[in-house]
């Protein structure tokens, strides 16, 4: 990882005015995590809390995400980089528009390129459609590994969907357990969690 290039991209994001979201945002959310993270988690876009703090997933869905990561014994400090399809908050948390996603995607692609994670987790339909296929459906593809650009991608429900529909938590947990096992298989065979039997 070229730290100067990384800092340069971060600066571009912080100053970005490529789409209208820049007019209403408070802080862009560049993403958070170690530059050598083996897992790259992608959400939709910042909400109100994220927009205030400039950090990803720090509101209610972030707290749920942290619980799931903790159960897998993954941390934001060591294992995962967390980013979004768009880096600025869509007003009222509406779904990002095609031209906003298009303007922002090169930043995410560059981040994926530089971090070079073997595993990607897509949280929800916007992330799945934005990265893999605009016609893909999260309800159909979740829980299944997708091969993409020499990486493997696990689509699963967005934590906000889990907060709205708690019955989906069981399926989401199955998906995260698959990621846990894959991490043991291809990254670190000694990785364990008291919550998952191996
Ligand atoms: N929801 C998202 O998709 N991303 C965030 O960063 C926070 C909430």
Report a brief summary of the structure.
Helix content is 44%, strand content 12%. It has nine helices and five strands, in the order ααβααβαβααββαα. The protein has helices at residues 3-14, 21-24, 48-53, 60-71, 98-115, 125-131, 138-141, 159-164, 169-186; strands spanning 39-43, 80-84, 119-123, 146-148, 151-156.
Shape by Cα distribution: globular
- Following the backbone from N to C, one meets helices and strands in this order, namely HHEHHEHEHHEEHH
Widest sheet: strand order? Answer: 2-1-3-5-4
Q: Quote the distance from N terminus to C terminus.
A: 32 Å
Mean pLDDT, all residues: 97
Which hetero ligands occur in this complex? uracil
Write down the Rg: 16 Å
Strand percentage: 5-15%
Secondary-structure map with pairings?
Elements: H1 3-14, H2 21-24, E1 39-43, H3 48-53, H4 60-71, E2 80-84, H5 98-115, E3 119-123, H6 125-131, H7 138-141, E4 146-148, E5 151-156, H8 159-164, H9 169-186
Parallel strand pairs: 1-2, 1-3, 3-5
Antiparallel strand pairs: 4-5
Bound molecules: uracil (URA).
Question: What features would you describe in this structure?
Answer:
With about 200 residues, this protein is an alpha/beta fold. The protein has a single domain (about 25-185), classed as Uracil-DNA glycosylase-like domain (Uracil-DNA Glycosylase, subunit E). The protein contains nine helices and five strands. It has helices at about 5-15, 20-25, 50-55, 60-70, 100-115, 125-130, 140, 160-165, 170-185; strands at about 40-45, 80-85, 120-125, 145-150, 150-155. It has a five-stranded mixed beta sheet with strand order 2-1-3-5-4, with helices on both faces. It is globular, with a radius of gyration of 16 Å. The mean pLDDT is about 95. The structure holds uracil (URA). The site of uracil (URA) has 13 residues, from helix 4. Uracil binds near residues 47, 56, 61 and 62.
